[in-house]
Amino acid sequence: MQRANPLRLFRSDDGVPKLLRRELPLEAQVLAIVTICLTVFGQLMVYSASSAYAMTHSEFNFDSLYFIKTGIVYTVVGVALMIGLIFVPAGWLRRFAPIVFIASLIGLVAVKVPGIGVSANGAARWLALGPITIQPSEFAKVGTLLIVAAMLATKKRPPGTLKELLMPVGLVVGIVCALIMVQPDLGTTLAVCIMVLALLVAAGTKTSLLVKVMGISLTLGAVMIYAAPYRRDRIFAFLDPWGQSADGAYQVVQSMIAVGSGGIFGVGLGGSVQKVNFLPEAHTDMIFAVIGEELGLIGALIIVGLFGAFAWAGYTIAMRTADPFQRLLAAGATALIVGQAIVNLGAVMGILPLTGIPLPLISYGSSSRIVILALVGVLIAISREPQMLPTIKRTRAPEPAPESPTPRPSRRRPVANVG
Q1: CA–CA dist 45, 311 (Å, integer)
Q2: Would you say residue 143 lies in a domain?
Q3: Which among 319, 317, 91 has a CA at the least distance from the CA of 202?
Q4: Contacts with 405 (C-beta within 8 Å, 6 or more apart), sequence order
Q5: Mean per-residue pLDDT over the chain, rounded
Q6: Pairwise CA distance, residues 108 & 178, whole Å
Q7: What is the rounded distance in angstroms from the CA atom of residue 52 to the CA atom of residue 274?
Q8: Low-confidence winner among 124-128, 187-191, 327-331, 338-342 (lowest mean pLDDT)
Q9: 49-102, pLDDT tens digit by residue?
Q10: Using 50, 70 and 90 to split pLDDT, how confident is the model at 164?
């Protein structure tokens, strides 16, 4: 049997690559449009939320455009990576899953190496590569997504018991989460758990096993929260924010004040008062509060609607994909991005505890923006995969012509010849 040559996907008789002539399906078009809208709008809101802060601090050279300049650089890198991944057959990513995963583990360990790791606010989460600072835990999400999707796709059936789930999926996820918690970073650990849970659901894992996994995860999460005093304070602040408005719940209360003061139509773009003197991390984790204050309920609902459209497009791509690995990859990537958005929005509005998860494509962040744009490119590539593969037409063998009925012998008696 002759093996298919992957390069045939890029060749054509008239010199135009086949991939460039493929039209995007509707869900991929929606995904691309939503991503562009969120990215452009995010840059606008980052400038609005950070200009006054950057202009009054010497570490940013008193430059009101500091965050927007660096944000545009990382956005260009992310968009270039997204466009490049669109034209890569999604099935090839399975080959590189172990390499990406091992590289992400090395990055998670390297943040603790003196001279390489960078610490801020008591957390060692970044690597300094010359003038560039990256966050390895963001890339660890991609490595975990690829390796877990490859493991689940290899098995003929989903895990049926805790023992089957533990080896090797549970072991891999446990190592990643442990390295992230050492930094410490509970928010990224939560994002990884949401993504893995979505992968298990997409793989067809039984509901009873999923309930057990969630119970164990919640128990471990409660232990980690209780072990750190600042995490306990966040939970108490979440339960009684107005009672601790001057202490542990200060950030939450200020975000709710910002959202509430925006009303229906907001105070106008750039007119936020909370972002200047009251709301910490206005351009990162709390940027949705600035959106609510400046653009009101209408602007907030538009953002929620865009993420809803993103979820529809991503899961539609996953459901339409026949390949198990690509289906798991699409479901996990969508759950990772949308799940982070849900947790961030819930925290800003006081519905969920603060976890430090930024709002995808809108909050300021270098590594997060690059990773999310890359995952969007993977999703679009998966949506194009059925059209990219050569169509195999099955020809049915011609049916034999119906045989002419055999003449039945006549039952008439012969007539005697008299004459």
Answers
A1: 22
A2: yes
A3: 319
A4: none
A5: 83
A6: 10
A7: 11
A8: 124-128
A9: 888 888 887 777 788 888 888 889 999 999 999 999 998 888 788 888 999 999
A10: confident
Q: What residues make up the domain containing 255?
A: 25-155+167-388
Check whether 403 has a pLDDT greater than 60: no
DSSP-assigned states of every residue in 281-303:
TTTTTTHHHHHHHHHHHHHHHHH
Distance CA 103, CA 111 (A): 13
Please state, in angstroms and rounded to a whole number, the distance separating the CA atoms of residues 29 and 383: 10
CA dist., res. 91 & res. 20, Å (int): 18
Which run of H or of E encompasses 19?
none
Sheet holding 123-129, edge to edge: 117-120, 123-129, 132-134
- How far is the C-alpha of 229 from the C-alpha of 246, rounded, in Å? 17
Q: How many structural domains does the chain have?
A: 1
SS3 content of the chain, % helix, strand, coil (to 5): 65, 5, 30
φ and ψ at residue 134, rounded to 5 degrees: -120, 160
Given a contact cutoff of 8 angstroms between Cβ atoms, the answer to whether 31 and 380 are in contact is: yes
Instruction: Let me know how many helices (H) and strands (E) the chain has, helices first.
Output: 14, 3
DSSP 144: H
- 18: pLDDT strictly greater than 80: no
In a domain, 205, yes or no: yes
pTM for the structure as a whole: 0.84
Helix or strand run (H / E) with residue 133: strand 132-134
Band the pLDDT of 239: cuts 50, 70, 90. Answer: confident
Beta-carbon count within 10 A of 246 CB = 8
pLDDT of res. 390: 40
Within a domain: 104: yes
**CB environment 198-221: b (16+ within 10 A), e (fewer):** bbbebbebeeebeeebeeebeeee
| Tally of CB atoms within 10 A around 165 | 21
Mean pLDDT of 400-406: 54
Helix (H) or strand (E) holding 393: none
In a domain, 13, yes or no: no
* Preceding omega of 89 cis (within 30 degrees of 0): no
Q: Are strands 123-129 and 132-134 parallel, antiparallel or unpaired?
A: antiparallel
C-alpha distances out from residue 353 to 187, 255, 287, 332, Å: 10, 13, 16, 23
